Amino acid sequence: MRIGIVAFTERGMRLALSLADGLRSRGNDMQVTGPARLAGAPDIRAYDTLPGWTEQAFANCEALVFVSACGIAVRSIAPFVQDKLHDPAVVCVDEAARHAVALLSGHVGGANALARTIGALCGAEPVITTATDVNGLFAVDEWAARQGLALCDRDAAKRISAHLLEGGTVGLRSDWPIAGAMPDGLVWDDAGACELGISISFDLGQRPFAHTLRLVPRTVTVGLGCRRGTSAEALAEALDESLTHAHVAREAVGALATIDIKADEEGLRTLADWLGVPLITYTADELASVSGSFSSSPFVLQTVGVDNVCERAACAGGGKLLSGRRTLGGVTVALASEVVRLSFDDGAETAAGGEDA
């Protein structure tokens, strides 16, 4: 997680640096910022203006931590707040380290988990105000974020949370087993008997309940091969055709992969940007060493030094093929997925690089 911390006093900056060390040790990418008078140390950046820093941090960080009064944080972030699916987590810690307040994006963004982690680091009391947490109920959006699941309908998520708060029962259907004890309020319901329910699948067409919240694991790697200069539009068309054929939602795509000689292809880079996923490249030797049964092309072998690019690239990260090579307009596409592992037992601190990180 990329976390920006800002502090405004010497005492606050000492706490900010201590928190940065603790969060960095949990695998987070940290940036400590403050006014110019506090930025003498090499690990403290000076901001030009607080609104400017906040705007930049909102765009580039997954979490913001203000070591300050809540009022400063609220006024700073107010112009940039959009919605819970896009806003970064925002936590405010007083400089005496008494309270760590989850201000924004408690569930999806991970502010609740981050506040708990900060509390564990400095002794502050985490202040969590989201209704499901206050009432000790299952928070589907927070759980989905921890599990790496794309949440495809926030209105359905709100409806489910409201139903649980009212004491209702929510059905659950999953294409994969889920370890751990079922949270209160959820029941396995493969028959779709419940009016409200959660469906976990690659296939967005699965709507087993009258009102279905669809959660999609982001575990699919798309292996791609293409001619030089292929446009992003042509690549996207081939990708969508392959996803539709395999009944896999776009939301399941977690990475694109190809051979290293295609690393500078503008179309591939643009498609990765559109999807918000990394473009991973492998050498011909790395692709040739991937174990498995793949289709083979003598022409491809002669051209790039390996008999198949898309299938091998899709599986190079350890996944298994979901859909073999398909060709559309000179673009070859293959889909592979890592093993989907789901659990109700993971700790809330995991999303913020807590004890389980």
In brief:
The chain is of the alpha/beta class and 357 residues long.
Largest sheet: 7 strands, mixed
Radius of gyration: 23 Å
β-strand amount: 25-35%
Point out poorly predicted stretches: 347-357
**Overall CATH architecture of the largest domain:** 3-Layer(aba) Sandwich
Count of domain modules = 3
The helix count comes to 12
Assembly classification: single chain
Strand order of the largest sheet: 3-2-1-4-5-6-7
- Helical fraction equals 25-40%
Q: Name the structural class.
A: alpha/beta
Distance between the termini: 11 Å
Here the CATH topology of the largest domain equals: Rossmann fold
> What's the overall average pLDDT, rounded?
88
Q: How many DSSP E strands?
A: 19
- Broad CATH class of the largest domain: Alpha Beta
- The global form is globular
General description of the model:
With 357 residues, this protein is α/β, with parallel strands linked by helices. The model is unreliable at 347-357 (pLDDT under 50). Helix 1 (10-24) crosses helix 4 (111-122) and helix 8 crosses helix 9. It has 12 helices and 19 strands. The chain folds into 3 domains: 2-129, Rossmann fold (3-Layer(aba) Sandwich), CATH 3.40.50; 149-217, Udp-n-acetylmuramoylalanyl-d-glutamate--2,6- Diaminopimelate Ligase, Chain: A, domain 1; 220-337, Nucleotidyltransferase, domain 5, CATH 3.30.420. Strands 3-2-1-4-5-6-7 form a 7-stranded mixed beta sheet, with helices on both faces. Strands 8-13-12-9-11 form a 5-stranded mixed beta sheet, with helices on one face.
